[in-house]
Structures
1.
Amino acid sequence: MTAHLRLGVNIDHVATVRNARGAGYPDPVRAALVAAAAGADGITAHLREDRRHITDDDIARLSEQLTVPLNLEMAATDEMLGIALRHRPHAACIVPEKREELTTEGGLDAAGQHNRLAPLVSELRNANIRVSLFIEPDARQIDAAIRLGAPVVELHTGRYAELAGAAQAEELRRLADAAALAAKNGIEVHAGHGLTYDNVAAIAAIPQVRELNIGHFLVGEAMFVGLGEAVRLMRSAMDQAR
Ligand code: PXP
């Protein structure tokens, strides 16, 4: 039987709506608690260098109040390393970050940035934070994750989500091959970016994938059905595919 597939709910865009007005609502911490009560296995939040959505105070409150694991998404910078070491989240996912981008575009170049990432990965690991690298489904990047000693990789599904037809099928094959290669080398496989009720099944069906991180779509759906119901529907789409 295929192992349980965890759902990490990314609450960044609850903070985006809050920050559009600079008011104190909607509160991403409240969203995290609702998501957890509805069956999310963990909460994911990206503290961007420009603080455009999640803030330092959000991370502090999430660290205090959550009863499910927190996965902190962070750029590979000294500032973010310091914040991670201070709050000691369950997990830290290292993502590439460019100030001008709308969202995380493409995976981390783990292969090209080995020397920069190696000390960061080992400091996080020494603090018992489970490190994950957000990478493209590419054998070269997985080899780099192995060399860096990362216990987890998160495969970027953004391209898969944008494509259709034969090109999407080809990208799905790359994801499945990358998941198999990583798992064969003892790396736990997560996936995420751009996942919706309509495209999640094929990713959830990849047997080596153990966790999906999903945010933007769920926060959008929450406007129509409520966040708890959106999380339950996603959970059920994932379970059906498994
Ligand atoms: N995983 C990672 C590493 C991400 O950077 C993001 C976006 O912040 C997600 C998952 C979630 O993507 P989406 O919001 O498109 O569901």
Note: The radius of gyration is 17 Å.
2.
Amino acid sequence: MTTQHVAAAQAAPALSFPEGFLWGSATAAYQIEGAVAEDGRTPSIWDTFAHTPGRVANGDNGDVADDHYHRFREDIALMVRLGLTSYRFSIAWPRITPEVTAERLGPVNPAGLGFYSTLVDELLAAGITPSVTLYHWDLPQALEDAGGWTNRATAERFGEYAEVVAGALGDRVPVFITLNEPWCSAFLGYASGVHAPGRTDAVAALTAVHHLNLAHGLAVAALRRAAPAAKVAITLNLAWVTPETASAADADAARRIDGLQNRVFLDPILRGTYPSDVLADTASVTDWSFVAPADLAVISAPIDALGVNYYSPTIVRHWTRERPKESADGHGDSATSPWVAGEDAEFPTQNGPKTDMGWGIDPRGLRELLLRLHREHPGLQLMVTENGAAFPDTVENVDGDRCINDVARSEYLRTHLVAVHEAIAEGAPVVGYYVWSLLDNFEWAYGYGKRFGIIHVEYTTLERTLKDSALFYAEVIRSNAVPRVLP
Ligand code: IFM
């Protein structure tokens, strides 16, 4: 932009959001809580995975994480400073029914439920609406020992667990999200093996896809019974899949990836069928005989909203086999192709700005995804349940105060909020936006090396410091509007 353009943009009014738009931030239990052996919690697959040498960068694990389990009051006070109107967090299943097995849910642990009940009460007292995710990847280890998501019993126990949580919190929680990013659970957990439980088996991954979908459906039914007033949603990490060129081969590679990243979840949940092209693409791997006749009716029970997590675009190219495959890892997309979709799609390295994860930055994808969902599923409420960026932050001392001038993160948030604003202006019913993440935290296989927080956490002392992006976001919330350029 020229100086004149900047001046004009600064003078133009900021882009206002609808009245009542939810301004939130999100976290997940294993990434922030710590206290992994307290109050009756038993191990999850992430405890096991992180304690297996070589699985997580630097040997990091979630044993302490941000110690949110003990510091949640301090964290709520920070949310109040930011003016958040909603907070999305997840519940650790191994705290709620620590003795669950494939055969039975086991007794409910009052201390585990009590932690979340207090959290909900204190959020409400602070004027912050809780938005509760039931599953953000911390499967009880005992269930994995019996096959994990490849075992149908895991989905059945999940439905029962959902009923317990809804019965305890449903009088105060207005939004329940069944699963977070089942694509990651299935493909990163069971195909590429970079996430817990670390398996590399294409049949297992596709079986897990179905049992995750079934778990969602069983949880929807449980939530309707036990928390009839609550809104029910699922959060998917949908990809804005774009073929690299207009060639038919690239278009077909993009179709396959769209099938396995997006439609294998969207279609059963919102249309009650698995996409026929995905079944055909995967026929050499499995005949999908793990789908029982009544399952799709369960999976497609109506939901009230769809959560969308978006970080970066997915560019796909047909792989010609003439040279080694490229797999620029925009959010782990490369997990799908090599294991399941055949060996003919690759993810070419892109030029242009990237985050510390190496993920390309392109807010158009968020707008296009929201508009696609609006076109294909008119009337379905949408929430951006995660969006944000990792950058290598530097803590500076300014007049004795700790400061983190993370202008790149603020600009990432600003441009993606403009994209949400554009989607709303074109009719997409987007009701809320949650920054990932409230706090720097345990970034799964990357450990603590990647910082997504708008609040900095000094891991040696656990001291929290608002980054400049948090101050930027607070002003967006206060004005209910996003500026056209960074102030
Ligand atoms: O940290 C994760 C989160 O747990 C799920 N969505 C993507 C985030 C960034 O990788």
Note: Residues 28, 31, 181, 309, 386, 436, 443, 452 surround 5-hydroxymethyl-3,4-dihydroxypiperidine (CB under 6 Å).
